[in-house]
Amino acid sequence: MARGVGRPKKTDGGAKGADAPLRKQRKKKDKNAPKRALSAFMFFSNDIRDTVKREMPELEFLQISSEIGRRWKEISEEDRRPYDELAAADKKRYLEEKEDYVPDPSFESSKSSRKKKDPNAPKRALSAYFFFCNEIRDSVRSQNPNMKITEIATLLAAKWRELPEKKRVKYQKMHEEAKVKYQSAMDDYNTGKASHVDEDEDDEEEDLEESD
Questions:
Q1: DSSP letters along 67-80, please?
Q2: pLDDT tens-place string over residues 13-50
Q3: Angstrom distance (rounded) from CA 189 to CA 124
């Protein structure tokens, strides 16, 4: 009796061979980073999504989103006010948390997507936390000579969290003064960039006239 032909063995690659597209690696996110503030529309959406699902169970996900968007456009300014207030409060929360946010020293963000910075542009104002770190970093290093840079950073963050609000005022004032100086420097910088653009355009016009 002849043996039947067996099933072909599966190759290692299978359908996902060398030609299969590679998945993009997700950027790592710092879990301790403040959550971004929600907009008034997002608060409204979260509030009525279940209602829309219950009233219109036949709708798919994208259709539900469209229906929520349609209802948002139709509500009055008075009905929007509570959501505007929620959004304003959440934005305030986010800015406050961002001000006190201390990045995890072990967290490495992807630099590939960052735009190149103009080396001549003014440096951003330091936060109150960084003014504090700059003031005590050398002292902390001398007291802990065997600590790694990441360990020093963690210790500085702990000291900042333990610092009473009254003692933080000094560094917050330094931050506010630095912000004013930065804004003034940025105004001068942007004015300078605009004048350079005008000069380049004038040079191009002169070159065209000479070529004619």
A1: HHHHHHHHS-HHHH
A2: 444 444 545 565 666 677 778 888 999 999 999 998 99
A3: 13
Q: How is 3-22 classified by DSSP, letter by letter?
A: PPPPPPPPPSSTTS-TTSPP
Tokens of 1: 């009796």
Q: Which two tokens stand for residue 20?
A: 């299969």
User: Torsion angle of alpha carbons 15, 21, 25, 26, nearest 10°?
Assistant: -90
Q: Which two tokens stand for residue 140?
A: 């902390």
191 is written with which tokens? 């004015």
The predicted-structure confidence for 78-89, as pLDDT tens digits, reads as follows 888 989 999 998
CATH of 40-100, one of 1.10.357, 2.60.40, 1.10.443, 1.10.30: 1.10.30
The encoded tokens of residue 16 equal 């996902």
Exposure string over 78-98, b if 16+ CB within 10 A, otherwise e: eeeeebeebbeebeeebeeee
Locate the domains of the chain by residue range. 40-100, 128-191
The secondary element (H helix, E strand) that includes residue 189 is: helix 165-211
Selection from 73, 43, 48 nearest residue 59 by Cα: 48
Is pTM, for the whole model, over 0.70?
Answer: no
CA 82 to chain CA centroid, Å, is 26
Spatial separation of the C-alpha atoms in residues 140 and 156, rounded to whole Å:
8
Q: Which CATH superfamily is domain 128-191 in?
A: High mobility group box domain (1.10.30.10)
Q: Is 20 helix (H, G, I), strand (E, B) or coil?
A: coil
Closest CA to 153 of 174, 175, 130, 169: 130
